[in-house]
């Protein structure tokens, strides 16, 4: 995503400058070339040497430094993205009025690259009509805004916005801005994730070991690629991904209903969930103790959610299934691909070390309806998600 990208990180003078260090490091570690532009006030909070150490590049501080007279023109034109974090009330006001009284505001005035601002200030300053008007004006001129959020400020707790968004949130919005013209931009993507639970009694359930991580990574990656994402999630302890609309479900029937409500508008459906295949035929109304002796439970099959979508799919939609198997995985995957009329199916072996449930990695093979077979090495699940979406995007433009 970030490899080879050129990002200009503008830093204005606020206590949230410490978060900018995390942004600089994260972008650099992800492969971006990061040029940091500091205002004079920002340099009072974090010294330039800190950013130089994090990025491996000199920091731009002034138009008057030797060799930097045209830095604002060069950086404003060459960058893939200009990110200002924190964007203080003072910086926002100067940018809105078109002032160019330091290197950062001159860069903003001369830029041709997309701009993302992360406001950070006292909650009263953010609520002020002047700040509201300045941000509205910048939006009208094409700037994107992320945050601010509620939470602790330098002067103490606050229930109102003012706190700068966390680096992970800012980076997700920055990635989405870069993909504003990509194949998934503006498309409706529905992703299912996690297990479902079927009640044995009010306490016990039939479920499986799915954590939901694969689906969550797919939803987050699709949103960063510009899609309008709905994540239909069974029970999961994972943090909600930044961006997607999350719909929580418990049972397979609830997941089927949620998918049914979304399928007609979905440009892409990715069924990464592992819904329970069976449910108790007659759930008990009360808990049965072990002193009652052995217990037999009659199970019946649940609905095949993906198969049920066939008559309701949007024409031209890209449909992706998953096949987690314990033997003859590719053969079974090809059978599911054909029987469920899929465009792609992601196949993996549940017994393979480092793959499947409850791990951060996966090794999959992607089969497509044209007969192609794409084997991926063992990878982090986010990397697997990106690879799957590369194939989805190829279908969208093919």
Which descriptors would you attach to this protein?
single chain; 398 residues; alpha/beta; Rossmann fold; 8-stranded mixed β-sheet; 5-stranded parallel β-sheet; 14 helices; elongated
Structure summary:
Strand 16, helix 13 (329-339) and strand 17 (344-349) form a beta-alpha-beta unit.
Specify the structural class.
Answer: alpha/beta
- The DSSP helix count reads 14
CATH architecture of the largest domain: 3-Layer(aba) Sandwich
Q: What integer is the average pLDDT?
A: 90
| Domain count | 2
CATH class bucket of the largest domain: Alpha Beta
User: Could you name the CATH topology of the largest domain?
Assistant: Rossmann fold
The portion of residues forming beta strands comes to 15-25%
CATH homologous superfamily of the largest domain, by name? CoaB-like
Q: Going across the major beta sheet, what is the strand order?
A: 12-11-8-13-16-17-19-20
Query: So what's the overall shape?
Result: elongated
Poorly predicted spans: none
Query: CA-to-CA gap between the ends?
Result: 22 Å
């Amino acid at each position: 995503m970030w490899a080879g990208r050129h990002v200009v990180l503008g830093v204005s003078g606020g206590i949230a400058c410490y978060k900018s260090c995390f942004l600089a490091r994260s972008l650099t570690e992800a492969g971006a070339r990061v040029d940091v532009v500091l205002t004079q006030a920002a340099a009072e909070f974090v010294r330039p040497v800190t950013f130089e150490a994090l990025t491996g590049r000199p920091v731009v501080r002034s138009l008057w430094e030797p060799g930097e007279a045209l830095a604002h023109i060069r950086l404003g034109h060459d960058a893939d993205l200009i990110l200002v974090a924190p964007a203080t009330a003072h910086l926002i006001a100067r940018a809105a009025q078109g002032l160019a009284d330091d290197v950062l505001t001159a860069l903003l005035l001369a830029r041709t690259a997309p701009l993302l601002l992360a406001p950070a200030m006292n909650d009263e300053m953010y609520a002020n009509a002047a700040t509201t008007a300045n941000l509205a004006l910048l939006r009208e001129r094409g700037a994107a805004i992320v945050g601010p959020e509620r939470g602790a400020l330098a002067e103490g707790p606050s229930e109102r916005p003012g706190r700068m968004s966390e680096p992970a949130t800012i980076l997700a919005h920055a990635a989405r801005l870069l993909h504003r013209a990509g194949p998934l931009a503006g498309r409706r993507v529905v992703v299912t994730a996690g297990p479902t639970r079927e009640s044995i009694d009010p306490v016990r359930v039939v479920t499986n070991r799915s954590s939901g991580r694969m689906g969550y990574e797919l939803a987050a990656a699709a949103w960063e690629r510009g899609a309008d994402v709905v994540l239909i999630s069974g029970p999961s302890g994972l943090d909600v991904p930044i961006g997607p609309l999350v719909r929580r479900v418990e049972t397979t029937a609830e997941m089927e209903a949620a998918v049914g409500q979304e399928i007609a508008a979905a440009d892409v459906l990715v069924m990464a969930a592992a819904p329970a295949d069976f449910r108790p035929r007659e759930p008990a109304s009360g808990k049965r103790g072990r002193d009652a002796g052995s217990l037999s439970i009659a199970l019946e099959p649940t609905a095949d959610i993906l198969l049920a979508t066939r008559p309701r799919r949007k024409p031209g939609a890209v449909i992706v299934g998953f096949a987690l198997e314990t033997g003859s995985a590719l053969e079974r995957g090809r059978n599911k691909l054909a029987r469920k009329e899929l465009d792609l199916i992601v196949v993996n072996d549940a017994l393979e070390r480092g793959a499947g449930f409850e791990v951060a990695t996966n090794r999959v093979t992607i089969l497509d309806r044209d007969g192609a077979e794409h084997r991926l090495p063992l990878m982090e699940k986010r990397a697997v998600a990106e690879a799957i979406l590369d194939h989805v995007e190829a279908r969208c433009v093919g």
